[in-house]
Amino acid sequence: MFFKNLKIYKLDGDKLTPGVSLTEQLARGPFERCASNQPMSRGWVSPRNDSELIHAQDGNVLIALRTEERIMPSSAINREVAERAEKMAAEQGYKPGRKQLRELKERVIEELMPRTLTKQHTTFAWIDLNNNTLAIDASTEGKAEAVIEHLRNCLDEFPIKPLHTNVSPQSAMADWLASGEAPAGFTIDRDCELKSVGEEKATVRYVRHPLGDEVHAEIQSHLAAGKLPTKLALTWDDRVSFVLTDGMHIKRLAF
């Protein structure tokens, strides 16, 4: 199993140790299927489909959070509410007000919920105790926040903070694109996005496009005009390719 994304945070490694204590703390929030009246449920599952909630090796810990949500299309809910509101208006002689509509919608959701299907997804996270980092395989902020929130609910102590770099990712990417050279060991690939900082947010994208001399000149002109890079595809040591974003989010990992 390979991660596709990396959302990285810093940890106080002295307060997190693999083994029985961490396993016992995660056991406070195991995954359970949604109850009939429950819209969503989340909890820890085994990352390796065995009986263990963690997989630990050489100071690295792998965990997995499973989320189950009920599928309730808003169009179906709104249609049912509209039909009941129309019937209510005929019975009482006037259209229902906002409060009545809100209560009607809550009642519809409560009645439909036990009959809806559910969907599941699992988010993996890697705790690197050697480097005091937490990396979450999440493509969105919401999925990463769900893992962090559940860790906070289960662990006695969870000292976490955003990852800060000496140079912002955006400034670094601008320097690399301006010079046409990535840092030692890295190469610039064929995907790039630049966005204006103005109100219009004018955007230029290069997708699977060789960023050779001609394109490099175009990119330099965009940088000179005030556009800043928001995404840049890179490869490290001919072994790992990825897209770096201006928010220090690593996406589209390919080994």
Tag the structure with descriptive keywords.
single chain; 255 residues; alpha+beta; 12-stranded antiparallel beta sheet; 6 helices; 12 strands
Q: If you had to describe this structure to a student in words, what would you say it looks like?
A:
This protein is an alpha+beta fold and 255 residues long. Helices cover 31% and strands 32% of the residues. It has helices at residues 20-26, 74-92, 98-112, 141-154, 169-179, 213-224, and strands at residues 6-11, 40-45, 55-57, 60-70, 118-128, 133-136, 160-162, 186-196, 203-206, 227-236, 240-245, 249-254. Strands 1, 2, 3, 4, 5, 6, 7, 8, 9, 10, 11 and 12 form a twelve-stranded antiparallel beta sheet that branches. Helix 2 (74-92) packs across helix 3. The radius of gyration is 24 Å and the shape is flat. The mean pLDDT is 90.
